[in-house]
Amino acid sequence: MKDHDPRHGDRTMGMATGRRGVNKQLGLADMQKQVDDYIGQFKEGYFQPMTLVVRLSEELGELAREVNHHFGEKPKRQDEADGSIALELGDMLFVIACLANRLNISLDDAFAAVMEKFQTRDKDRWTRIEK
Prior knowledge:
Blueprint: H1 28-39, H2 49-71, H3 85-102, H4 107-121
């Protein structure tokens, strides 16, 4: 993806800075392992799958609220704290990694399968950019 392609918006909007001990260049398997290492330090472990789906829905609502404030017709209240689309997407990735780990699903394999589906089923659906 190009940095300033208008179809993709501003890639820098709300980007989080790196934190101590957090690798900013993770693949999906690495992300799942980092989440598993984090969750593994607690006796409670992963939530049940249904609880994780509910959490994912909550995070999607928070993302929708931020997108609406940035691009929609509903501005934030003056007393409302600034949010971050990037952090809300990160929250969703964390919950998705938790759900995948809980169900022993490889996100690498799942993503590869979904891309294969799109590249075959929808290969002629859209107008291609001439190179």
